[in-house]
Amino acid sequence: MAIRGSRKCDGGKRRAVLLLSLILLVWNACATAHRIASVGILPSMDDTENYSALPSSSSDETSLLSAESPRSGPLTIRQKYLIGKRVDINKASLAEISELPGISDETAAAMVEARDRLGRFRSPEELLGVKGIKERRLRKILPFLAKMPNN
Q1: Which of 132, 88, 34 is nearest to 96 (CA)?
Q2: Global confidence as pTM
Q3: What is the 3-state composition of the chain as percent helix, strand, coil, each rounded to the nearest 5?
Q4: pLDDT exceeding 70 applies to what percent of the chain?
């Protein structure tokens, strides 16, 4: 028989809390899966003209799957990175490059100028030749960059 305040009684409370936590975890996972299933499969961020294939409740409402964050408007480059979008440094505009973390407008302009002079960047190490890009900054932006061809 368990005495109040003994370790056996505390173990039962711990089990109850763990069980309740597990139930809440499963409930949240199911609710998230249901929400994703009701919205549908997300289109790629590059394919903006194919939004007409997405289901919408009415023609004048904006689609739930727009490239905008519900709180702050258009997605930032960091938010796009989190959903899998990478910046192709050889095709990106000055505005896209300047959104990279740690890249100022002047550095972005220098990157575009170097890209125009070289034709294209063949490896990330070539970015070290751009004014304002050192190893630390290169390591910071590497996760946001698309793969570069080896040729």
Answers
A1: 88
A2: 0.47
A3: 55, 5, 45
A4: 68
Please, what is the Cα angle at 31 between 68 and 41, to 5 degrees? 45
| Residue found by looking up tokens 């109850």 in the block | 16
Amino acid identity at 135: E
Instruction: Report d(CA 120, CA 140) in Å as an integer.
Output: 21
Distance of alpha carbon 117 from alpha carbon 42, whole angstroms: 37
Secondary structure letter of residue 32 according to DSSP: H
Rg (CA), the chain: 24
Per-residue pLDDT reduced to its tens digit, 48-69? 444 444 444 444 434 444 455 4
- Give the tens place of pLDDT for each residue, 70-95: 565 777 766 776 677 788 999 999 98
Amino acid at residue number 71? R
The angle formed by the CA atoms of residues 104, 79 and 119, to the nearest 5 degrees, is 50
Is-contact 77 96, C-beta < 8 A? yes
Give the span between the Cα atoms of 79 and 113, in whole angstroms: 27
Residues whose CB falls within 8 Å of the CB of residue 57, separated by 6 or more in sequence, listed in order: none
* Type of residue at 75: L
